[in-house]
Amino acid sequence: TLEIPKIGISVPIIFSKNADINIVTKDLDSGVVFYPGSVYPGQVGQIVALGHSAPPNWPKIKHDWVFSDLNELNSGDFVLVDLNNRQYKYVVKKKVIIQKGADIPTIDSAQKNNVLTLVSCWPPGKDYQRIAVVTELVSN
């Protein structure tokens, strides 16, 4: 599971089989998608986690709302990943708005540590831009 205590979410992690947009889109109905090619928690490199966002007061159908409140996260907030009977704790390093189709941001420490980047549409429920919250592993 992926948990973000500050915004009150705990959702399943889905490992998409490939990067085909139709498969990833279908997988997003079941939770947060770890994009194919991402490293695993604890490994050196970057994990890209995709989640839907929805406008305010959207009914919580499927998992199309999970990343609606990513903008509330700030440096120092925590993200928890529970995988294979271990918990990985990440701390938020930065939050950016990027253009649709732009490269997913990371941080320099991804060359020697595990970085988890949470990505969703911005603003919530619209497909204009993307919000990306970059976090770094602090304990496992």
Structure description:
This protein is mainly beta. It has one helix at residues 21-28, and strands at residues 2-4, 9-11, 13-15, 32-34, 45-50, 78-83, 86-99, 114-122, 129-139. The protein is built from one helix and nine strands. The chain has a nine-stranded mixed beta sheet with strand order 2-1-6-7-9-8-5-4-3. Helix 1 (21-28) links the parallel strand 3 (13-15) and strand 4. The longest helix is centred in the N-terminal third of the chain and has 8 residues, at 21-28. The radius of gyration is 14 Å and the shape is globular.
Search tags:
140 residues, mainly beta, globular
Rg (CA only): 14 Å
Structural class: mainly beta
List the strand order in the largest sheet: 2-1-6-7-9-8-5-4-3
Tally of strands:
9
| Order of secondary-structure elements | EEEHEEEEEE
Q: What is the topology?
A:
Blueprint: E1 2-4, E2 9-11, E3 13-15, H1 21-28, E4 32-34, E5 45-50, E6 78-83, E7 86-99, E8 114-122, E9 129-139
Parallel strand pairs: 3-4, 5-8
Antiparallel strand pairs: 1-2, 1-6, 4-5, 6-7, 7-9, 8-9
